[in-house]
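Problem: given the chain below (282 residues), write out its structure.
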Amino acid sequence: MLALCFINGELKISKNISDAKNYGLWIHTGRDIRNFCKILSIPKDIVDKELKSYRSAIYSFLLVPFNGYLHKLHILLLNGKIYSWDLEIPEDYIRNIMEYCITNDFRQLNLVLETIISYTVEKLYSTLESLTLEIDKFEEVIAQKPELRRLHRILSKARRLRKAIFQINSFTSRIALGRKVSEQLVDDVRRLLDHADRLLERITMLTQFHYMVLSDRVNNVVQKLTIISAIFLPLTLIASIYGMNFRYMPELGHPLAYPAVLIVMASIAVGQLIYFKRKKWI
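Solution.
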């Protein structure tokens, strides 16, 4: 457990439960909060039923990205204190936020809360930027070879991030209704959500472009096969006619019949090639 405490006019980080209960501004535990409900005087109904509102309490959560996954940082505002808990988020993440509050001497609850939100926003921004770079690299190769599996992975990651940003936007808006929150922070969260929406739209356009490239390749192959079929179709027809076993075919007895038919067939093929070339089909 970590607690940001205001003791003797000074902000400190403490692991002592007594300090957390008596002087804590923000109390965080990496374990199940139910173990601390009685000690910290937290109504257990809020945690068990995940109540969104309980008298003067506000309960919600932030989705924090770590190692490609989103982890819930549960946050409860109750009796002038901030309570948070999670089983997956590293303790260093919480400690860094608390140290930032100590460095800037943030003694007011709303300033500590804004710092938590701002730190999470920065984490989401950096994750979005890395995803943007990944998309940029993918755009360079998408016209050369199919990367459907990679594209699906990028799209899934973008959707998870958008979900996290939407949650933090919802959380910030809910907090702003009951407490004074910086308008700049609210605007930053909204811009982050807009950025995520534009990124998803870009990925969608990238997907459409990818399928356009694949469709164009298929069309080129089909076009070439159609041209080859068109060239050989009249030649096959001539060969089929002279392959019939009729007894009376006058030209069969002519000495120049064979070379004449070959010349006609070659002329037809060359003529078709010239025609397709002028039409720019090949």
